[in-house]
């Protein structure tokens, strides 16, 4: 019998960085379908570099990345576009499109060479609009949207791309607390209801502890990975920041200012 919890992505002894320097090494973890996973760590530790490496946007320095058991490097671009979607922090160059048109671009890996949308493509676009609460904004130009609305559109486009794995770089930057929680809950629903594997970088550690199934802590040493409660029990959050400024309260699972 096949294991229903397949490893969508597995990372073994990965080192990441640039020709000029290694940013992080000794990274090991696996994410399953149906899981929402966060990558956290202090500024400059390598969260975005890791996400770009996993998204095949820059090469790894050493180690291996496998998606559904196959090496990332062995995927052709069209095949990878059906396995993996990436939502980056940069603003899209296509902001003159309407919300619906931008989300429809998510179907490009599946459409024919003139980009004709099939009935099932159209259904997925409508489902993505509805899931991310965008029906009322469907005809608005993307340059007319607030940061939070645009973030929902970019994630809805990834949902329309319908890949098993979705990678997002800081999807809640610039959002107020309500909209941060809204985005993270929508991502959680997408992972749990549609059995997607969703991996995102964030500085919202308290929210990640409450909403994520697993967390990777990039700490320049062990890079622990596990369920939030395991990481709390093992006291990994205590060492994240210098304790003269902020301390971790294991009872509430949140950080407090050291007054
Ligand atoms: N193109 C590049 N060439 C060389 N070094 C780079 C390049 N881009 C980033 N770096 C360096 O790599 C390190 C990791 O950067 P990265 O942006 O991945 O960190 P981060 O954890 O996402 O940071 P933040 O929390 O501030 O967004 C930093 O020291 C950064 O200066």
In words, what does this structure look like?
- With 259 residues, the protein is an alpha/beta fold.
- It folds into 2 domains: 1-83 and 163-259, P-loop containing nucleotide triphosphate hydrolases (Rossmann fold, 3-Layer(aba) Sandwich); 91-162, no CATH class.
- Helices cover 30% and strands 25% of the residues.
- It contains 8 helices and 12 strands.
- The chain has helices spanning 47-54, 77-81, 99-104, 119-131, 147-161, 177-194, 205-211, 228-233; strands at residues 7-18, 21-32, 36-40, 62-67, 70-71, 84-87, 165-169, 197-201, 214-217, 225-226, 246-249, 254-257.
- The chain has a 6-stranded mixed sheet with strand order 6-7-8-3-9-10, sandwiched between helices. A 4-stranded antiparallel sheet has the order 2-1-4-5, covered by helices on one side. A two-stranded antiparallel ribbon has the order 11-12.
- α4 packs antiparallel against α5 and α5 packs parallel to α6.
- The longest helix has 18 residues, at 177-194.
- The protein is globular.
- The chain starts with 6 loop residues before the first strand and ends with a strand.
- 36% of the residues are buried.
- The mean pLDDT is 91.
- Residues 18, 20, 23, 41, 43-49 line the site of adenosine-5'-triphosphate.
Broad structural category: alpha/beta
In DSSP terms, counting alpha (H) and pi (I) runs of 4 or more, how many helices? 8
Strand content: 25-35%
Helix-residue proportion: 25-40%
- Describe the main β-sheet briefly: 6 strands, mixed
Our Rg estimate from Cα atoms comes to 19 Å
CATH class of the largest domain: Alpha Beta
Question: CATH homologous superfamily of the largest domain - what is it?
Answer: P-loop containing nucleotide triphosphate hydrolases
Bound molecules: adenosine-5'-triphosphate
Tell me the strand order in the biggest sheet.
6-7-8-3-9-10
Determine the N-to-C terminus distance. 56 Å
Shape: globular
At the third CATH level, what is the topology name of the largest domain?
Answer: Rossmann fold
Number of beta-strand segments:
12
Order of helices and strands: EEEHEEHEHHHEHEHEEHEE
CATH architecture label name of the largest domain? 3-Layer(aba) Sandwich
How many discrete domains? Answer: 2
Could you list the spans in which at least 5 consecutive residues all have pLDDT below 50?
Answer: none
Mean pLDDT score: 91
């Amino acid at each position: 019998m096949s294991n229903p919890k397949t490893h969508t992505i597995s990372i073994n002894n990965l080192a990441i960085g640039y020709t000029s320097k290694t940013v992080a090494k000794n990274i090991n973890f696996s994410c399953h379908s149906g899981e929402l996973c966060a990558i956290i760590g202090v500024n400059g530790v390598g969260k975005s570099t890791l996400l770009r490496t996993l998204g095949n946007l820059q090469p790894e320095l050493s180690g291996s990345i496998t998606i559904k058991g196959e090496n990332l490097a062995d995927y052709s671009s069209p095949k990878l576009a059906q396995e993996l979607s990436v939502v980056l922090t940069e603003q899209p160059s296509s902001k003159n499109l309407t919300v619906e048109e931008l989300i429809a671009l998510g179907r490009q890996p599946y459409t024919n060479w003139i980009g004709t949308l099939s009935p099932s493509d159209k259904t997925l676009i409508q489902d993505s609009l509805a899931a991310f609460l965008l029906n009322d904004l469907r005809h608005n130009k993307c340059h007319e949207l607030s940061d939070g609305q645009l973030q929902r559109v970019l994630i809805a486009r990834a949902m329309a791309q319908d890949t098993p794995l979705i990678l997002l770089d800081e999807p809640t930057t610039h959002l107020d607390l309500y909209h941060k929680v809204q985005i993270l809950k929508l991502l959680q629903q997408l992972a749990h209801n549609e059995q997607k594997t969703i991996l995102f970088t964030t500085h919202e550690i308290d929210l990640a502890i409450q909403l994520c199934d697993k967390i990777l802590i990039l700490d320049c040493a062990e890079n622990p990975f596990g369920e939030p409660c395991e990481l709390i029990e093992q006291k990994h959050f205590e060492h994240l920041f210098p304790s003269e400024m902020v301390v971790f309260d294991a009872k509430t699972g949140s950080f407090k200012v050291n007054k």
